[in-house]
Amino acid sequence: MSKYDNMEKTVLSAIEDIYKSVPAERVLIDEPMSRHTSFRIGGPAAAFVTVNNEEELASVMRAVSGRVAEHMVIGNGSNLLVSDDGYPGIMIKLGGDFESIETDADDPCRVTAGAAILMSRTSAFLTEHGLSGFEFASGIPGSIGGAVFMNAGAYGGEIKDVVETVRVMNADGSGLRTLSNADMQFAYRHSAAEAGGMLILSAKMKLTPDDPEKIAERVAELQFKRNSKQPVNYPSAGSTFKRPVGGFAAALIEQSGLKGFSVGGAQVSEKHSGFVINTGGASCEDVLAVMRHVREKVLEDSGILLEPEVRLINCSL
Question: How far is CA 217 from CA 135, 202, 212, 213, 226, in A?
């Protein structure tokens, strides 16, 4: 039996077209998503494609959009919970040119970062170049593109605080353009890119010059704080639930006595109750069972319905 036999016709047709613009070694069939998510959970995607430049991305998006083939563009997979059944479509990940970062020739305080570069690498680059303002984001897992897409934040800072412009592409591979900070309509864990289904290609940020040693000290201090309070030694997708109006998800979960609550290999972290972690061999269904129980108990105790911050792929609460 061929590995393509169970594939939807639209997906198979799109893959055949993708081979024309992306080398075969970057088109993986039946690729386990557990290899590409920080949760280390997820069954196989019908195809997993890595694109290395804007031309490849545009071609791939035209192929999947024109055939109405199920697809998704992902970042570093640090905010995803993928079904144990996998994903029946095409996962598209940015690499190559999208991992670049450079200062502007005319203004060294302005830096352009590709959507695929990790936040940690971005922080290291900015520290080395004596550019401050990104310290809050140094320990956030994931890529610049994902962070801009959801306006990621930590320790009182958000991506919107440093981003000047964002280069985007329409979901069908057309409409390359640059959006201003205002155009992006940043809000709590939200952006115009998310609302409009736009693809983040790169972001230009404005930073402030400072002594590299002082920046490094602040980064180290925040990293120590993160490591001491968060379960960084276990696979997770970061904060599992969004911050509700007038409260904090972690506090509500702890007040409901759910610290340490577990199903299978999934557990509400005993270190930080805002995290559901994979203690070993957790399935997607384990995590969903924990999330459902947490939502029900917190709603019962506080009247507040927690909304997931983790993105649920081919699964639901």
Answer: 10, 28, 9, 6, 14
